[in-house]
Write a structure and sequence with these properties.
Mean pLDDT: 94
Number of strands: 0
Structural class: mainly alpha
Order of helices and strands: HHHHHHHHHHHHHHHH
Shape: globular
Largest sheet: none
Distance between the termini: 53 Å
Strand content: under 5%
Number of helices: 16
Length: about 260
């Protein structure tokens, strides 16, 4: 890879893979230096995300903000995507309000961008702002009524966070008709059934969804329903499996502590 750099050939690829090697060796200064040399191309977005993660862990928040501002100025054709990447990185690092501010700014500049609107909707739900969530989801479904991801997110949240189960059912029936084999949608339907008091039926759906995905959130749904149904050993086994996949998952540890008292 260094020879490629010397020959000025495939430099973005070379810089990216050299950065990943340095990262594996825990040489973050070298990792950052290589990533900083990637200014465009297929590796550009990944490089921006990796750079931001390094800098946030080092508490260099202002540098991350400057990084994305400069990236958008030099790459205006993907500015909206860069906003979404910045917001996601901030959210992952528990900087929820900063992420929300980024999305508000982004949507003011790109009001017709569905990706940004969807990101704000999902973050609004995390912020317990269901009014904003519903406003954004209503607009998204209006713009794209056959988008299974929108229908699923809207229906699942109504089932999980409100008592508007009939509305949730209408949305989720439409979603699963569009994508009958999608584990996330199958899980949402199962969760709706559980919320309606149809525990066995819900368990059947969620077991199917987890078998197809091993997704953490779906696994937590499965563990909860097993636990409240009296299958405590089976629930514990699911928690153990999830922790084997991600031993440091605070979400799983908190969920197990909540139920396994």
């Amino acid at each position: 890879f260094k020879k490629l750099l010397a020959l000025d050939s495939n430099t973005n690829e070379a810089n990216y893979y050299l950065a990943m090697i340095a990262k594996r060796l825990n040489n973050l200064t070298e990792t950052e230096n290589y990533l900083s040399q990637i200014h465009d191309g297929e590796r550009f977005l990944n490089a921006q995300a990796e750079l931001a993660q390094i800098r946030l862990k080092d508490q260099r928040h202002a540098q991350v903000k400057q990084q994305f501002n400069e990236a958008r100025q030099s790459n205006p054709d993907i500015a909206s995507t860069l906003y979404a990447v910045e917001a996601e990185i901030l959210r992952e690092n528990q900087r929820t309000e900063e992420a929300y501010t980024v999305l508000m700014d982004a949507i003011s500049k790109h009001p017709q961008d569905n990706m940004l609107l969807f990101s704000r909707a999902l973050l609004s739900e995390k912020r317990n702002d269901l009014i904003q969530f519903e406003a954004d989801m209503t607009e998204l479904v209006k713009r794209d009524p056959n988008n299974a991801s929108y229908l699923n997110a809207y229906g699942y949240t109504l089932a999980d966070r409100t008592n508007r189960l009939k509305e949730a059912e209408t949305l989720l029936q439409a979603a699963i008709k569009l994508k009958p084999n999608d584990p996330a949608i199958i899980d949402s339907v199962g969760w709706l059934l559980y919320k309606k008091g149809l525990t066995f039926e819900g368990l059947t759906y969620i077991k199917k969804a987890f078998a197809a995905s091993n997704d953490e959130e779906i696994g937590l749904h499965l563990a909860e329903i097993l636990w409240v149904s009296g299958y405590k050993n089976e629930a514990s086994a699911i928690w153990q499996l999830l922790l084997k996949q991600n031993p440091k998952s605070e979400t799983v540890l908190k969920h197990r502590a909540q139920w396994d008292k």
